[in-house]
Amino acid sequence: MEGFNQTRVTEFVFLGLTDNWMLEILFLMTFSTTYVLTLFGNLLIVVTIVFTPRLHTPMYFFLSNLSFIDICHSSVTVPKMLEGFLLERKTISFDACIAQLFFLHLFACAEIFLLTIMAYDRYVAICTPLHYSTVMNMKVCMQLVFALWLGGTVHSLVQTFLTIRLPYCGPNIIDSYFCDVPSVIKLACTDTYLTGVLIVSNSGTISLVCFLALVTSYTVILVSLRKQSAEGRRKALSTCTAHFTVVALFFGPCIFIYTRPDTSFSIDKVVAVFYTVITPLLNPLIYTLRNEEVKSSMKQLRQPQVFFTKAFI
Predict the structure, then answer these.
(1) In angstroms, how far is the first alpha carbon of the chain from the final one?
(2) Which residues touch 181 (CB under 8 Å, ≥6 apart)?
(3) Shortest CA distance to 272 belongs to which of 108, 71, 85, 28?
(4) How confident is the model at residue 286 (pLDDT cuts 50, 70, 90)?
(5) pTM for this prediction
(6) pLDDT for position 33
(7) Please, which of 51, 85, 111, 172 could form a disulfide with 24 given CB 3.0 to 4.6 Å?
(8) DSSP states of the chain
(9) Is-contact 41 284, C-beta < 8 A?
(10) Are 210 and 155 in contact (CB under 8 A)?
C-alpha cells in the first residue's frame, strides 16, 4: 500500500499526436468523421441483428457483441483525443486516467476473447456441422459471452492494480493521446522493471496465445474444406476471410504494443491510432460489405413498417 501514500501527481498532460495546429484541425475533422461512422456502422449492425429473426444465430449473436464492444472501445479514447485537438494544454486527471486505462483494457481484452470464440464457432460450424446446433446453442453462447466479460474484467483489474500501486511524484507528461499502462508506468518514481515484466506477461501472453489459437483454428478449417462441396468452400472461405481480416487488423497492433520490453518507437502513435480509431470502423465495413444476409436485412429495415412490425412482435 506504500505506493498509494506516495502519489503526488493529480493530473497528466498529453503531448497528443502533433503540435502543429493545421495538422490538429485536419486530424479533428478526419477522426471526428471516423468516430461518427464507427458509432453509426456498429450500431446499425446491432439493430439489424436484434430486429431480424433470421439473424438470431450464434454467428450473428457474436457479431452483434463485437459491434457493441467496438462502440465502447473507441469511445474510451477517441472523444478525449478530439477534445485535445481543441485545447492548447491537453490534460486528464489522475483518476480519469486510471479509469480510461481500466476500460481500455476491459474492452480490448473482451474483444480478444470474443474473436477467439467466433473462430471456435466457425470451426464447429464447418468441421462438425451435424453437432453445431447442440454444441453452440443459445445457453452456451450466453455462457461464453459471460466468460469473456469476466476474463476481460479480471485482466483489466490486474493491469490497473499493477499501475496504481506505483508512486507517481514527479513527471506527468504522457507522449500519447490516451492513458495506457506502458506510457503511464514510465512516469512512476521507482524502478518499474518487474512491473513491466508482469504487464507484458499478462497482456502479451493473452494476445499471443489467443492469436495462435485463432491461427490454428483457421488452419484446421482450411484443411477440412477439401472435403466440402464447391459452394460450401466458397461460403466458408468468405466468412473465414472476413473473420481473419478482422483478427489480423486487431491482433497486429496488440502484439506489437504489449509483447515487447519497455521501449518506444516513432511508429507507436500510428499503431495506437490504427488500434483505437481505425479498426473499430473497419469491422462493420468488413462484415457488412462481404455479407449478403446482413446487407439484405439492412435494406428491409429501411422500410419503416417492416422495422416497427419486427420491433413489436
Answers:
(1) 55
(2) 101, 105, 159, 162, 163, 199, 203
(3) 108
(4) confident
(5) 0.86
(6) 95
(7) 85
(8) -HHHHT----EEEE--S-S-HHHHHHHHHHHHHHHHHHHHHHHHHHHHHHT-GGG-SHHHHHHHHHHHHHHHHHHHHHHHHHHHHH-SSEEEEHHHHHHHHHHHHHHHHHHHHHHHHHHHHHHHHHH-GGGHHHHT-HHHHHHHHHHHHHHHHHHHHHHHHHHHTS---S--EESSSS--HHHHHTT-SS--HHHHHHHIIIIIHHHHHHHHHHHHHHHHHHHHGGGS-HHHHHHHHHHHHHHHHHHHHHHHHHHHHHSS-S---TTHHHHHHIIIIIHHHHHHHHHHHH-HHHHHHHHHHTSHHHHHHHHH-
(9) yes
(10) no
| C-alpha separations of 53 from 122, 136, 284, 295 in Å | 20, 17, 20, 14
Our CA dihedral for 86, 17, 261, 159, rounded to 10 degrees, sits at: 20
Cell numbers for 106, please give them: 476491459
Using CA atoms, how far apart are residues 204 and 54, in angstroms rounded to an integer? 38
What confidence score (pLDDT) does residue 3 get?
Answer: 43
Burial of 188 (0-12, 13-18, 19+ CB in 10 A): buried
pLDDT in tens, 51-83: 888 889 998 999 999 999 999 999 999 999 999
pLDDT digits (tens, 9 = 90+) for 115-140: 999 889 888 888 888 888 888 998 99
